[in-house]
From TrEMBL:
InterPro entries: AAA+_ATPase, ABC_transp_permease, ABC_transporter-like_ATP-bd, BCA_ABC_TP_C, LivM-like, P-loop_NTPase. It comes from Phreatobacter cathodiphilus. Keywords: ATP-binding, Cell membrane, Membrane, Nucleotide-binding, Transmembrane, Transmembrane helix. SMART domains: AAA. CDD domains: ABC_Mj1267_LivG_branched, TM_PBP1_LivM_like. This is ABC transporter domain-containing protein. One of its GO terms (cellular component) is plasma membrane. The chain crosses the membrane at residues 12-31, 37-59, 66-86, 92-114, 121-144, 164-182, 214-233, 266-285, 291-314. Residues 346-592 form the ABC transporter domain. It is found in: Cell membrane. Pfam families: ABC_tran, BCA_ABC_TP_C, BPD_transp_2. It is a multi-pass membrane protein.
Length: 592
């Protein structure tokens, strides 16, 4: 029987929601103070948060340095104002104009985001800044529509939102809504996929995550939220000119996410509130605001790189016990895998692959059967990992084919999970800042059925997905012997535990084939014994295992078939007892 689900569930959700309920509840009481000045600042914070909530998914979750996000605020502010003023179309009601701005923002969110699919870090950051400049220049030059440098009036809100507190409640409501929808994404297979793309991109690909589709969906959402925030911002300002959308504002949004902490919703929310209030209480220092932001950023990066979220993460400060042993329970695999009806093997035929002048693989053919453990051994540099990478689609061979019934598309690693092929890595590829169970659930990303839209609004199919994937992940963790660590941050685990986490992540895919790249490296003797029992258990469920290993004992104990590579060629292939006494293998690899 699968172990009880120790994570998630109603009380846990309520506990996680409490700080948000408290913050928004307190804000809702603000009108009781009768202080309209603070009401104005709170309204501004709510509008900024609308934008930052979406930007947080891009920067904090996906790790994309979108530093020039003020451009979408500008775009939304002008779109709403122009549509309400009727400068290009007949005048639209404010809410229709806001919705239109949201659509424009979604489109331009993708336009700004597209370079992220090709460019990394600072290069992408520069393109977002470039876009911010373009939007400002267009607003200046397109005088007949935008009023150029003179500007135009922001949209006037209908009653009851025309009064300061009415408008405040509108913005607060939308800010709370933005928190809810972005939090739904963050705590879904899409959110986990985002952090996988950020911190373990090859593992994300091996789990079948399509970076392009994922990022496009998130850029659309963030763009729509930012542009609608722009519409409300224009209304709050009552009059907009291009000068209102400064680089400092862009910096504020970006830093709010950074000081908030990556992979958190609460941290960036608090960051936004702090950064909105800061210039007000430090009004005499207004001219120094950019300087203050820069200092704040430096302090955060140097003194608390995890940001506010890390400060609030009390759970991770509790010490873990040191004498924890990994005790796999292979009996649980039956409820997870059950691939016994499958018969189609993975067949490699005459594979050739070179790196420059080095022939890493030189005409390798081998067949990996379902339900068997196939050992792949050989001296360092003999081509084992490269063979595994060809099967996983990371490398496209110059010659030869890889088939699983149908050909496996070369050079397309994200297609393998869908074909039932999972893998682990020579160095574990784990998201250190995520919990162990979240890491395992990343492996089940493609098993989710709810669409991005269903997830956004937490519709029943999304909730059912979460229950199912969490249940499968807990079973996988119990099968590898780590369920007690499900809620612990993965970067607190020992190396050997991470190896088993990777196996659990591969298992939730219900793989027909599992490829393990040196899973015993760094494990103790007793851990290797337990690993052996686990691998045997996996193959008994019908899953074909390809085991790349240097531990000869492990290979000879559990493999049904062994292929020996040397200098990129198959030196020998056969049963363990044949290989053990094979003369050339003994002299080239095993030693006399
Ligand atoms: N990305 C790469 N670029 C250039 N050369 C590479 C690359 N990957 C592997 N090689 C070369 O290809 C050959 C095979 O490497 P591979 O990593 O497959 O060997 P291996 O049998 O897995 O070795 P080990 O047991 O040390 O992991 C080696 O000569 C290696 O230097």
């Amino acid at each position: 029987m699968a172990p009880a689900d120790k994570t998630g569930g109603g009380p846990a959700v309520l506990r996680a929601a409490l700080p948000f309920i408290a913050l928004f509840g307190l804000a809702a009481l603000l009108p009781l103070t009768g202080n309209e000045y603070w009401g104005l600042i709170a309204t501004r914070a709510a509008i900024y948060w609308m934008l930052v909530a979406g930007l947080n998914l891009i920067v904090g979750y996906a790790g994309q340095l979108a530093i020039g996000y003020v451009s979408l605020l500008t775009l939304g502010a002008y779109t709403t104002s122009v549509l309400v003023a009727g400068n290009v179309t007949p005048p639209l009601p404010v809410f229709a104009a806001l919705a239109a701005a949201g659509c424009v923002g979604a489109v331009f969110g993708v336009v700004i985001g597209l370079p992220a699919l090709r460019l990394r870090t600072f290069y992408f950051a520069m393109t977002t800044l470039g876009f911010a400049t373009i939007v400002t220049q267009v607003a200046l030059a397109w005088q007949s529509v935008t009023g150029g440098g003179i500007g135009l009036s922001g949209p006037e809100m209908p009653a009851p939102f025309d009064k300061a507190w009415g408008f405040f409640y509108l913005c607060l409501g939308i800010a709370a809504f933005s928190t809810w929808i972005t939090s739904n994404i963050a705590h879904s297979r899409f959110g986990r996929a985002l952090i996988a793309v950020r911190d373990a991109d090859v593992a994300a690909e091996a789990s079948g995550i399509s970076k392009a589709r994922l990022l496009i969906a998130v850029f659309m959402l963030a763009g729509a939220l930012a542009a609608m925030a722009g519409g409300l911002f224009a209304s709050l300002q009552t009059y907009i000119t291009p000068d209102a959308f400064t680089f400092e504002l862009s910096l504020l949004f970006f830093i709010a996410v950074l000081i908030g902490g990556r992979g958190s919703i609460l941290g960036p929310l608090i960051g936004t509130i702090v950064l909105t209030i800061l210039p007000e209480i430090a009004a005499p220092l207004a001219a120094w605001s950019t300087f203050l932001y820069a200092v704040l950023l430096l302090v955060i990066v140097l003194a608390m790189p995890g940001g506010i979220a890390a400060l609030l993460d009390f759970k991770s400060r509790k010490p873990l016990t040191f004498d924890r042993a990994i005790k796999p329970r292979p009996a649980l695999l039956a409820s997870l895998l059950d691939r016994r009806d499958e018969r189609t093997p993975v067949v490699l035929t005459d594979i050739v692959l070179s790196f420059g002048g080095v022939r890493a693989i030189d005409g390798v053919s081998l067949t990996i059967e379902t339900g068997k453990v196939h050992g792949l051994i050989g001296p360092n540099g003999s081509g084992k990992t490269t063979t595994l990478n060809v099967i996983s689609g990371y490398y496209a061979p110059e010659k030869g084919s890889v088939t699983l019934g149908q050909p496996l598309e070369p050079g397309a690693p994200e297609t393998r999970a869908g074909r039932g092929i999972a893998r682990t890595f020579q160095t574990p590829r784990i998201v250190g800042e995520a919990s162990v169970i979240d890491n395992v659930m990343i492996g089940a990303t493609i098993q989710g059925q709810a669409t991005f839209m269903e997830t956004l609004f937490s519709l029943p199919r999304h909730r059912a997905d979460e229950r199912r994937l969490r249940g499968a992940a807990m079973t996988a963790l119990a099968a590898v012997g780590l369920e007690a660590l499900a809620d612990v941050r993965a970067d607190r685990l020992q190396h050997s535990e991470l190896r088993f986490v990777e196996i659990a992540r591969a298992l939730v895919l219900r793989p027909a084939f599992l490829m393990l790249d040196e899973p015993a490296a760094g494990l103790s003797v007793s851990e290797i014994e337990r690993l052996a029992a686990l691998i045997k258990g996996i193959s008994r469920q019908g899953t074909g295992v390809l085991l790349v290993e240097h531990h000869a004992d492990l290979i000879f104990d559990i493999c049904d078939h062994v292929t020996v590579l040397n200098l990129g060629r198959v030196l020998a292939a056969g049963t363990p007892s044949e290989i053990r006494v094979h003369k050339e293998v003994v002299s080239a690899y095993l030693g006399g």
